[in-house]
Amino acid sequence: MKLKRILVHKCKMIPCNVDNELLVCREQGKPDGKLIGMVTIHVDDLKLAGATEWTNRTMTLLQEEFGELKITWNNFVNCGVCHDQNPETFDTTIDQIKYASTLKAIVHPQLSSGKLEDDSCPEAHSLYRSLLGAVAYLAHTRLDVVVFVSALQRNSHQSKLEHLKRLNKLLSWIQHHPKKILYKGGRKTGGCGIAEASHLRIISDAAFKKETDDGYSLRGVVYVRAIGTDPVSKNTICHILDWTCKSQRHVCRSTFAAELLGAGDAADQGLLVSQMMFEVACCSLVPVEVRKRMSSKGFVDVALYVDAKSVYAAVTATFLKTPAEKSLLSHVQFLRDMLDNKVIKHIVWIDTRDMYADGLTKGSVSRDALLELMDGNMILRHDSEQWTSKQNKGTTQTLDLDDGDEAKPTHYSFLVDLAEAFAGRALITKLAHEYKLSAFEPAEKELGWDLSTAQGKASWQHMIVSEKPVVVVIGFCCTLWTSFTNLNWSHRQHELKLFA
Length: 500
Known about the structure:
single chain, seven-stranded mixed sheet, four-stranded antiparallel sheet, 19 strands, globular
């Protein structure tokens, strides 16, 4: 408490709303000032990053309060994670190679005498739980093995000898295949600095297996900060920010349900990651502003990546339809609402062969994609599809009407692009999505709209006022006895020549 109080009051630092152990410092202590440094706290260990002048000044203030500090630059170990920064390019790697090398495999007489399907004795099971917890700590840097740790944790209540041998084998593989996570930080290496234009990529995947008694579903997601603003760029420099590999919180009865629920949970957690990115790069927010941004326009540009075409089609449909599993409709609407409100700017379907989170849900697939991501690269080698909502909720467009000097600008808020009445087959509405336009439900008798009645006319008028479509298309009923036949000159060519 004393340490944080000094950082806030003496060093003029501001805690992040998402994680109070992360503090940022801005010029003149203003919430919207230029970022000059940041600190993370773990008990009495501090990790600082920022301008050299600010770093020296902060450490001087801390030493005045706590005495001489042990200070290490560029290469140090914090919480068991080794950090190594190149002072010239600012490329930084983190790893737990040294920590992994200290772990010892389980040695017990039952392993050599028992059968694989035998329950482990209390002593062997205790060794299993101890080593499993130590290996699970590697999840700080080894996202390529977390799916195996997650599978072994399912048997932590009562293990078999088979699980002990699998854990020993996993530890041996980790020790023989060391790996670091690379964060490219300088322009010399094409890295992504804090001031570079970037966006958040949420790469979500899920796996569903119908077991004997129930359906087990696993979800995996990787959150990366990618340089640039194009969510479908083929080759992108990226920084891994966070990742998840865990069982679904909801009951899943199909692959569609697993993918949809996994995407929803990934987007939900992505809100916090995007908020943290915004507070670090731009400015600190008060809770009222956070609430507004969570419901409209979001914090930073966010792209959600899925490889389930059925989920992509369900969320991006012009008219959302109720899935075969009725309870999933609200989850489809949740994702669509986030897209319409620009909390998530893009949803991208990528080929399964480009799904980087595949290794977080399946142990049988290659680790190459995850290892490529750990090297700071995201490469889309196959075709992809991108969808962005055209609805502009909460945004006001100003139209200047040139009706004289006394005319004033009129403000319109367009929520949908077009609405169609007397639609017939509603061909315009059906084609709207191909041109990335949003359309309201067409007013046609088959869909419950009867514009010949007072109630139908009132409902249509209310829709126009509330939804504010940019264009209204009306296909008036044109029979042989309507006045619109006067517009047909094909049988009155002699009359048409009189106007020539």
